[in-house]
Design brief:
By secondary structure, this protein is mainly alpha-helical. The chain is 83% helix and 0% strand. The chain is built from 17 helices and no strands. The longest helix is centred in the C-terminal third of the chain and has 35 residues.
Length: 412
């Protein structure tokens, strides 16, 4: 069922995300045992806030750059980084203003940290398109090695700050500063390789990036960002930074599994640009198998390592994490369907599904949190969100498949 090339690529992607997830566990262990819940919650608030502002970095240009490289036009990667950096500068004054507002409200450390993150914003997001150069060529080994190296050093920097008793400002400086430095290094590396090509080829490739497609995917990724950022921001606003610390720690394993599934999806994404639907059925079946394995693995890992890592002080997080065991399968299927519709330029359909799902889940969280415990409200929020995403996408996929089958039948 699985091709040799798929298994080889999958091995590198899996190794990458196992090691990155391990780095994330080390970081979360450090926060859980060396920092207060308040500091951890504030740190997670900043990450969610920056993710919300990532629209200014035009994240859809990453996929446009993968598309360009898949068509042997790597100059599109450089164009994507340039445009992303230019537009991301617009976020800087907005984040500085957000930091100032928090300071005036008495949240001085949090406001200062948000302002610093704002200054680093363009350098953190824009160069991170470097990976498209490799993934567009289905070459996942360099991405795995570089991403793992970056994650290891960032984790070491954060852990060092925690051990030394550094404050929130130092934590933000370490994460965004070190991450931005690695992204710049990897970007300059592939830039040299691209510019080393023949001058004539360079001139031909300077306008190869499908900008309109990148903008449409950016709009789509804004909807994705809501799915990642809105839950922690909603919990923080409704219940405070302490509750956010519990909520995000419960999500730590799910985020790791979701990242792995997303990276595995990158293996077959270039195929969607080049093949028809009939050749994707095997990939769909593979996603079901991978999703089931991911859910089982998730449940076992949570049961074995969660409390030893984080102690009974995060018991509520443990209960939430256990209850989320079915979501990796849901995420695997949703990832396949989103990539399928993205490659077919059905961006606005996907955007509509994401916006509607986030609205339904947010309203559901608001209603449940008024009548139930924090644990029930958190679990309900996440299940309602992910199922509201999957069901419309799956329904449309099945219906279009049936219609295609009827259209292909011979007529008498």
């Amino acid at each position: 069922m699985f091709s040799r090339a798929y298994l080889a690529s999958g091995a590198w992607v899996t190794a990458r995300y196992v090691l990155v997830a391990a780095a994330g566990l080390v970081t979360s262990f450090g926060f859980a045992n060396l920092a207060t819940k308040e500091t951890f919650g504030q740190y997670q608030f900043i990450l969610a806030l920056l993710a919300l502002f990532s629209v200014f970095a035009l994240p859809g240009l990453n996929i446009a750059a993968v598309k360009a490289t898949a068509k042997r036009q790597p100059f599109g990667v450089l164009e994507a980084v340039r445009r992303s950096f230019q537009v991301s500068l617009m976020a800087v004054p907005l984040l500085l203003g957000s930091g100032w507002y928090l300071i005036t409200q008495g949240e001085v450390p949090l406001g200062q940290a948000v302002a610093l993150a704002g200054l680093l914003f363009p350098f953190y997001y824009a160069p991170n398109t470097w990976y498209a150069f490799y993934e567009g060529q289905l070459n996942f080994r360099p991405v795995a090695i570089r991403t793992t190296l970056s994650a290891a050093v960032v984790t070491a920097a954060l852990f060092a700050v925690l051990l030394l008793g550094g404050n929130l400002l130092w934590l933000v400086a370490s994460f965004f500063g070190v991450s931005a430095a690695f992204s710049a290094w990897f970007y300059l590396e592939i830039r040299r390789r691209i510019l080393a090509g023949p001058p004539q080829r360079q001139r031909q490739e300077k306008k190869v990036l499908d900008i309109r497609y990148g903008y449409r995917v950016t709009a789509q990724k804004v909807a994705y960002t809501l799915t990642e950022s809105l839950p922690p921001l909603a919990v923080s606003v409704a219940l405070g930074h302490l509750a956010l610390a519990d909520f995000q720690l419960a999500n730590i394993f799910l985020v790791g599994v979701s990242g792995l599934l997303g990276a595995l999806a990158a293996i077959y994404l270039p195929r969607f640009f080049m093949e028809d639907r009939s050749k994707h059925r095997r990939v769909f079946q593979q996603n079901i198998i991978i999703g089931v394995i991911a859910s089982l693995g998730y449940f076992v890992v949570v049961r074995l390592v969660f409390l030893p890592l984080y102690s009974e002080s995060y018991h509520d997080s443990y209960l939430i994490a256990q209850a989320l065991a079915a979501l990796p399968l849901v995420i695997a299927l949703r990832t396949f369907l989103v990539n399928y519709y993205t490659a077919r330029d059905r961006n606005f359909f996907v955007i509509g599904v994401y916006l509607a799902a986030n609205l339904v889940a947010l309203l559901g969280f608001w209603a449940v949190s008024r009548e139930s415990s924090f644990i029930v409200a958190s679990v309900s929020y996440l299940y309602l969100l992910h199922l509201s995403l999957l069901l419309p996408l799956m329904t449309a996929y099945i219906l279009t498949g049936e219609r295609s089958s009827r259209d292909s039948e011979p007529r008498n």
